[in-house]
Amino acid sequence: MLKINNLHVSVGDKPILKGLTLDVPAGEVHAIMGPNGAGKSTLGYALSGRPGYEATEGSVEWAGEDLLALEPAERAAKGVFLSFQYPIEIPGVPALTFVRTALNAQKRARGEEEVAAPAFLKLVREASKALKMDFDMLKRPLNVGFSGGEKKRMEILQMALLEPSLLILDETDSGLDIDALRIVSEGVNALRRPDRAMLVITHYQRLLDYIKPDRVHVLAGGRIVASGGPELALQLEAEGYDKYLPPVLEGAA
Amino acid sequence: MSAAFNIDLTDAESFPSRRNEAWKYSDLKRWLREAPQPSPTAAVGAPGPFYDLGGDAIVFANGRAVGVTDFIASGEQTLRLRYISDAVGTGHSAGARVAVRAGAKLLLLETHEGAGSAYVAHNTLELDVAAGAEVTRVVLVEEPEDAISVSEAHVKVEAGGVYRQTIIATGAKLQRIETRLSHFAQGAHVQADGLYLLNGSRHTDLTSVVRHMEHDGTTSQLIKGVARDTARGVFQGKIVVERGADGTDARMGHHALIASERAEIDAKPELIIYADDVQCAHGNTVGTLDESALFYMEQRGIPAEEARALLTQAFLIEVIDRIEHEGAREVAREWLTARL
């Protein structure tokens, strides 16, 4: 279970998250919705430990660990996975090499046995088939020359292989057409398990038609300002975020 | 063959200083004020990195030839050229001459294998590539961090000859690896690649002068390097296209990563063109490791140090991938990977 308590995060000198409190029990999917600039991506980066995103106050506990005290790679080994809104291209490192290096680094960190190449290839073949990915593509440098949809599938493939227990999906629907959105969502839904928690960060309600959340939270001005069931997403879609935005002062020029 | 090597380790007057434009970034005189005492004899120990690829060998140990110093290649041959240094505070010079007959094919595997400390080495190679001959030269340079070395190669490529070289250097206190190459006749093809990977306070200087003297020659040069800590990488690449060398196609690229705030890269690409109908281009970039790529890799569980090494290797490997000969390429790849 993820417990975020009164989290304050600054980027440079600028406070972005200002006292965010949120609990996500294992087995549940929680959606974080909010207007642009609310701090949605910052939350994903802060949970995964991106340099430059400094927690100035508050705490984050994941599976009994103080997450904020760990290096990004240590958090990954504890099961934290951030699916990037814009997955990074890594020239010179084939996708297969990358994922195997990551998987074995995580296993080493957990004191587990590494996966040998033949067993790994078998896992990848099965997982890529389920996502309708061309296996040959995985021999190319990671994400280099991949379309937006291919990059997102690559993220889901990594999730399937790395088997994280806390999944953070940052705007996973951006740049996807409706077919790609369905394939990616099916990939995510296949990963739902009683021992896994998911945080789905999105601006639009559309993604939640495919990945059904247990709870929906509205993030505005760096805090959770409203929480509810799936119907809250529909309400936001109909009414917009206006009522959660800071009031404009009368007469201010 | 005319010797054009001006440095004489027994004569301190011959050591260039930064007052000499070509030695601006590698001031030999500063580190070497006096002629070093001559090195004693040394034993040839380990068989060298390219041993498994077989072939003939020219071996120097502390400058002394163990067997022949000259080699004439015909047919298809492999030659291992080994400059072994194992000395403490002394100096030695070695010179090899290699001629490759018309139509012959030579794989030249050169290693600078340094042990001991604070030695001074001066190595020279004269290499003639006859018409239609093909040479692949791969050079691995590994020396102690307090050694000083200057290596010079003079290469002459005749009509339709093909010459490819890849220099892989890890630096020393001062290390200069210079190639002077002439497209001596028409239609020669040259690839003059190199890479450097420098730690600590190491210094390496890859200098090359490629002269197109006749028409329709091609030159392709890709140099990549990484400087960490307080290391310093120097690339000086000059391509001269002489009057009448029409149809020349020359491309030069130098790309380096600075992996620490105190590391330094000095690059001086020069294209000097006296002919009309030529295509020449150069590109030079110096940057740092991509922080967002590093974070992405760490987020997937790859520890920071391992992520840096992987990105560094990915950056440099392009040079290795261009090595034509598969066996040599794989030795070079392993050699580099072991030193990341």
UniProtKB/TrEMBL annotation, chain A:
It comes from Brevundimonas mediterranea. Residues 2-246 form the ABC transporter domain. The keyword Nucleotide-binding applies. Keywords: ATP-binding, Nucleotide-binding. CDD domains: ABC_FeS_Assembly. InterPro entries: AAA+_ATPase, ABC_transporter-like_ATP-bd, ABC_transporter-like_CS, FeS-cluster_ATPase_SufC, P-loop_NTPase. The lineage of its organism: Bacteria, Pseudomonadati, Pseudomonadota, Alphaproteobacteria, Caulobacterales. One of its GO terms (molecular function) is ATP hydrolysis activity. Gene3D superfamilies: P-loop containing nucleotide triphosphate hydrolases (3.40.50.300). SUPFAM superfamilies: P-loop containing nucleoside triphosphate hydrolases. This is Fe-S cluster assembly ATP-binding protein. Pfam families: ABC_tran (PF00005). Belongs to the ABC transporter superfamily. Ycf16 family.
From TrEMBL, chain B:
Residues 97-315 form the SUF system FeS cluster assembly SufBD core domain. InterPro entries: Fe-S_cluster_assembly_SufBD, SUF_FeS_clus_asmbl_SufBD_core, SUF_FeS_clus_asmbl_SufBD_sf, SUF_FeS_clus_asmbl_SufD. It comes from the Bacteria. One of its GO terms (biological process) is iron-sulfur cluster assembly. This is Fe-S cluster assembly protein SufD. It comes from Brevundimonas mediterranea.
